[in-house]
Write a structure and sequence with these properties.
This protein is an alpha+beta fold. The chain is built from 13 helices and 43 strands. Among the domains are: 94 residues, no CATH class; 185 residues, Methanol Dehydrogenase, Chain A; 219 residues, Alpha/Beta hydrolase fold, catalytic domain (Rossmann fold), CATH 3.40.50. An eight-stranded mixed beta sheet has the order 36-37-39-38-40-41-42-43, with helices on both faces.
């Protein structure tokens, strides 16, 4: 036996194994950055929108293998055809507008088709065009002004910038002068003063509402709250050498808020009726002020500070008497920002309202006097959204989740029910996440549904029988599969209570080999305002697919404390955002690793942005028994530093010790593991100081970490630079290898 030969062969075999099973290699990096383009445009026949026309026909854009195809569907003949000749249309646009567009990639929108004239009106770039489809003569009708400045989300509502308000009969103007309410006669220009109690620190708002009969006015006084300004420095502006100081309005938890006091005025008699405020003294907000159509009263909604009470209040216009029509209360919080719905039927003869009072989000019907008439929907499932109220037929259309025990409880289905809570009709039942587009008369609808492992199927259905009339398109992903694409796996495991199912997905690399060992990376966003695990089909999951190619199993999970399940499931987050569903997440990953031993539960990373950035930091501050590596982007690391509405919604008011207990900053000394913090220097969503205070606390605690600050960047995961740093950080600390040089990867 040749010992030297045997040892050489063994060494070669060993080196081959290392080559086969090595992770974080240059080859994997190149695959990771190419995966987006590799999967792009490989799924066909999955149109995104369906546009109904008045005659119950509709049009849509199909992503066919040949390019964009514009189709017209006839609901009577149950057929579909191309809406126009794409080559002739492209030629007409090129000839008329001196453009160079291809027939396969026409980008036109807002189509209006006239069958009688066989003509089409549509938008192309910044123009409105018409085209005769007999001759394909193109005419420019109008130009479109682009208004992309939406303003900053956090700007304070300006109570003084509304113009004078015209009376319903157009004879008088109501306006504010010297902090008080005045009336001017348009014909003779005479004016008189209605209020005398306005002052600079307690002034009348210019948002004035006349009663429909023009005899009364609702105007409210405002006692301003505190001003809170967020400052940051833009270090590298594009238009100058020197840095810029920027500022934003930015209220934070605990800040003093404005107090609004509605007042009633009888115009002709110049009578001022003061409205008692006892029912709405502790204001977070007063909103949706509306007069009844017969001018008998006006209503408004009152959101109590701390969000444990929410009221619909009616004020009698004859005497100013206040009546609470709906008094929604909770021992924890009312999810006003996501679940509240109100619809006043027949000028307030009844009120449709949603509530979680029985432990699940459902629809309720109130009488006009504020007495509860009926709980309309019931069961251990949730109403997701009311989409339409048919007053004539006394029916409510809504979406719901959790209707089927054998389906994912987050799948959205479409239903209707009558005002009496009877005759529940389901428009969708197929095992998938549904998106329905109804015709304008609700006689037909397009039902499009998909799952993470199944591309969209689009069907035309009859609303009367809920049966399929025509298969519009069926998603084709054969080309995607040829690229090695692997569908995410839907996985569920029991949560911390041992009975509740926790749902998530598992994403594997295209090179997946069950004989390898894969560290786990969790992409996290545990904001209580929603649920976040994808339910629809996507070829590419930007935060997960690319990372998986580097030799990781990537997961996403909705733990307790997130929304769209029971109220008890949601309440876990209350005054306890540090929880982040982590007890459920750990059990879920352990259960997955038990089923799939190639998932290395001893090497776990996590990353997230914004609220997910807070969660990722909390993984190493409060949960380092399980998580080893974290990348936190633009996180709110102390809820006292973030925006007022989001944090008080779930952390409550007043500010108490529970805010500190949940703070990554206060508890930074507990951090264990490898942490990277990514920060955009001009983030005006989450105060950048929140990350820097976390940094300061970590330094004081003598903790090792990495900080990546990106000039000119706002609220984000770090852009392409942040993505590179994130990949390298996980490869280094989970695979234990030095990443390739960027010049080798990205050139």
């Amino acid at each position: 036996m040749n010992l030297k030969y045997t040892i050489s062969n063994t060494a070669i075999a060993f080196l081959c194994c290392l080559s086969i099973y090595s992770q974080g290699t240059l080859e994997e990096y190149k695959k990771a950055i190419a995966i987006d383009s590799l999967f792009k445009n490989k799924v066909f026949n999955t149109p995104e929108e369906f546009h109904w026309m008045p005659n119950n026909n509709f049009w849509y854009i199909n992503n066919s293998k040949q390019g964009k195809a514009y189709y017209l569907v006839n609901t009577k003949s149950l057929n579909q055809r191309l809406l126009f000749d794409h080559k002739r249309m492209a030629h007409a646009i090129n000839k008329t507008l001196q453009k160079h567009v291809s027939a396969e990639n026409l980008k036109i929108d807002d189509l209006h088709y006239s069958a009688n004239e066989n003509s089409l009106k549509f938008k192309f770039e910044n123009l409105v065009l018409s085209c005769n489809l007999n001759e394909y003569n193109l005419n420019v009708i109008d130009s479109i002004k682009n208004n992309e400045n939406r303003g900053y989300w956090g700007n304070r509502f300006d109570e003084t910038n509304n113009k004078p308000v015209l009376s319903p009969d157009k004879t008088r103007l109501a306006f504010i002068k010297n902090s008080n309410l005045y009336i001017r006669n348009i014909k003779n220009n005479e004016e008189f003063q209605l209020s005398y109690d306005g002052a600079l620190g307690n002034y009348y708002s210019s948002y004035i509402k006349w009663s429909p009969d023009g005899k009364k006015i609702m105007a409210y006084k405002v006692k301003p709250g505190v001003e809170h300004t967020l400052y940051f420095v833009e270090s590298s502006p594009e238009n100058q050498l020197q840095p810029k100081l920027q500022s934003r309005d930015y209220l934070k938890p605990g800040d003093e808020l404005p107090f609004k006091s509605p007042q009633l005025f009888i115009v002709d008699s110049k009578k001022h009726i003061k409205i008692p405020t006892e029912e709405f003294n502790s204001q977070f907000s007063i909103s949706d002020i509306h007069w009844r159509e017969d001018s008998r009263a006006f209503t408004f909604e009152y959101n109590q500070r701390g969000h444990q009470a929410y009221k619909i209040i009616e004020v009698d216009a004859s005497n100013g008497t206040v009546k609470v029509l709906v008094n929604e209360m909770s021992d924890t919080f009312i999810d006003y920002s996501s679940k509240k719905y109100r619809y006043d039927v027949a000028d307030g003869s009844s009120i449709i309202w949603t509530s979680e009072r029985d432990g699940w989000n459902h629809i309720y019907l109130y009488n006009g006097d504020g007495t509860l008439k009926k709980q309309v929907t019931k069961g251990k499932w949730v109403v997701r959204k009311v989409i339409h109220v048919d007053e004539e037929n006394k029916e409510i259309y809504f979406t719901a989740s959790g209707l089927d025990k054998n389906q994912d409880p987050y799948f959205i289905h479409y239903c209707k029910i009558d005002f009496e809570g009877k005759h529940l009709t389901r428009f969708t039942s197929e095992n998938g996440n549904h998106k329905v587009t109804f015709s304008k008369d609700y006689k037909y609808y397009v039902d499009q549904y998909s799952r993470v492992d199944m591309p969209a199927i689009s069907l035309l259905k009859s609303a009367k029988k809920q049966n399929t009339l025509l298969e519009i398109q069926k998603g084709d992903y054969k080309e995607l599969l040829k690229q090695g694409w692997k569908a995410p796996e839907v996985f569920k495991a029991k949560g911390r209570d041992g009975t509740t199912d926790i749902w998530g997905i598992i994403i594997r690399p295209t090179t997946f080999d069950p004989n390898r060992s894969y560290p786990i990376i969790e992409y996290i966003y545990a904001g209580p305002h929603d649920s976040f695990v994808p339910k629809d089909f996507h070829a590419y999951y930007w935060s997960m697919s690319s990372l998986a190619e580097l030799g990781f199993i990537v997961v996403q999970i909705d733990g307790m404390g997130t929304s769209n399940r029971s109220k008890a499931f949601h309440d876990v987050c209350w005054k306890n955002l540090r929880d982040g569903g982590f007890p459920d997440r750990k059990l879920w990953m352990k259960a997955a690793a038990k089923k799939y031993p190639y998932m290395n539960v001893d090497k776990v990373g996590i990353h997230g942005t914004s609220a997910g950035g807070q969660n990722a930091g909390a993984a190493l501050v409060f949960n380092s028994d399980f998580y080893d590596v974290a990348v936190s982007s633009c996180g709110c690391h102390d809820n006292r530093m973030d925006k007022i509405w989001w944090n008080e919604q779930f952390m409550g008011y007043p500010i108490g010790p529970h805010y500190e207990a949940c703070s990554n900053v206060v508890n930074a000394h507990q951090l264990k593991g490898n942490l990277m913090l990514i920060l955009g220097e001009i983030d005006d969503n989450v105060d950048p100081a929140s990350t820097m205070q976390f940094v300061n606390a970590l330094i004081k605690a003598n903790k090792d970490f990495e900080l990546v600050t990106i000039p000119g960047m706002g609220h984000s995961a770090g852009g392409s630079f942040g993505a590179r740093k994130r990949k390298d950080f996980f490869v280094k600390h989970l695979h234990g290898v030095t990443p390739p040089k960027w010049t080798e990867i990205y050139n």
